[in-house]
């Protein structure tokens, strides 16, 4: 038997949750469900293409096709190489910058925080445009400078495109993660740091043995979002793809999905591949969470 | 020299020489990082002021021979019957209005999850967290498929409606509500006979203003950033957000050899980024607190 106030709370909760829930169901749950359904069908053209098309139930064939397609698997290889480069540099770089900022020596802290965060105010597509211009020979002062030093680097070649893409993402997100880490460092109690100092620990030692372990949860979360971000890689490759013939139309899994849907018109395959990417991201985030948790318990 | 001055946080005597050295070192390293983040923006600003000839002929980190910013701006707003202005307006609607509504819905939901009792609460919240985990780009094709079913492909709504849902905002709002809205205040309001809705609107909502601004900023950048979804959903240029329009100019500069579009994409980028940078400078307090609330708790 609910008291009047409990009933009122329930009614209000329903009212306050309604707009979000209805829209969440419409633009997240329903599309996922529909994509799951679509992924079980394939489009067959009957006759010579004059008879129109019909949907044929194919079970898990689209999933099997995607997984056995070397182009799709290569996309994941690209992601793996990208993440192997990007995640350590990003997390290490942002941590180093946050520790430097926190090292009590810095004047103009807020200047540096802003200067390093500023790229995050630039939309990803525009960041990619700026950098691809900076990678383009004949337009780029960076390439000119390297050439004058007799270093001939082709940023848009097949071998270097992964690093070029990682650099764009690094530019956008490093300051963002730095601000998070810096905020976490501010929460480290002063007494702990004083104790370390009295015990004779220097700045570097304090940073590595005291500060780092204490902000581990913030670092773990940043690793998680960085890994999920890597799986989603699309904007930077899409822009690089327009500028360079060196990378293919299925360079990353998301590019593969887009090509499957709009170049090959195979929506069943695109839906299956999308869901595989979502599943992959979910499994990865589960693993990352798991690993960081067991680490912090040990 | 040997006095134990407590000006700094460390004993001074031993540290003076090395502190000077490492102060320079630390500042130099941060300075290098700042160059890395600021130089590309400087390049954008300088390039937008150049004529097409100077863009290719002068150093990217130096001003051009002619100051062509005004000509470039004039061209930007005139080309294709002023389509750029239309893209800007679309973006304001998609990102501005969309984020405003998304934030209102998130704050209402987050407050309900934090302060109100209802059956199955944690299970429903788990579903919201699942929504946080599904990568946005993996949803683009599923969204396209369902939009195709209900006839929303290549319409304003196909891009606008997905922006109204922000599961991470609900999570943030719950965290904020727990720390900004004391239970005692709500109890007092209930004692005084205020209804639940009235309590939320008149008492809790004003206390959640910082949460509102923070979530708005996050979702605003998120929608402004989105590229895959509009790319898939829209084919009518007049519905494009700025991002997609700039991408069109950029790729036509490359694929169809329209070098004038190089400059258009650059000037257009600067014009759409500038207000965002100003917004971030003005609202520092909010995004910093938002980052902390989202990451540390």
UniProtKB/TrEMBL annotation, chain A:
Location within or outside the cell: Cell membrane
A biological process from GO: transmembrane transport
CDD domains per UniProt: TM_PBP2 (cd06261)
Occurrences of domain ABC transmembrane type-1 (ranges): 74-288
Entry membrane topology: Multi-pass membrane protein
Keyword Membrane among record annotations: yes
Transmembrane domains' residue ranges: 79-100, 112-133, 153-171, 214-234, 267-288
Keyword annotations of the record: Cell membrane, Membrane, Transmembrane, Transmembrane helix, Transport
GO cellular component: plasma membrane
Pfam families, per the entry: BPD_transp_1
Superkingdom assignment: Bacteria
UniProt main location, coarse: membrane
Listed InterPro entries: MetI-like, MetI-like_sf, UgpAE/MalFG_permease
Protein family per UniProt: Belongs to the binding-protein-dependent transport system permease family.
Stated name of the protein: Carbohydrate ABC transporter membrane protein 1 (CUT1 family)
Organism: Kitasatospora viridis
From TrEMBL, chain B:
Membrane topology: Multi-pass membrane protein
InterPro entries documented for this protein: MetI-like, MetI-like_sf
PROSITE patterns to which the protein is assigned, alphabetical: ABC_TM1
Highest taxon of the lineage: Bacteria
Presence of the UniProt keyword Membrane in the record: yes
Alphabetical GO biological process terms: transmembrane transport
Any one annotated GO CC term: plasma membrane
The family this protein is said to belong to: Belongs to the binding-protein-dependent transport system permease family.
Residues spanning the membrane: 20-46, 92-113, 125-147, 159-182, 203-224, 262-283
Protein name: Carbohydrate ABC transporter membrane protein 2 (CUT1 family)
Keywords: Cell membrane, Membrane, Transmembrane, Transmembrane helix, Transport
ABC transmembrane type-1 domain ranges (all copies): 88-283
Cell membrane keyword on record: yes
Taxonomic placement: Bacteria, Bacillati, Actinomycetota, Actinomycetes, Kitasatosporales
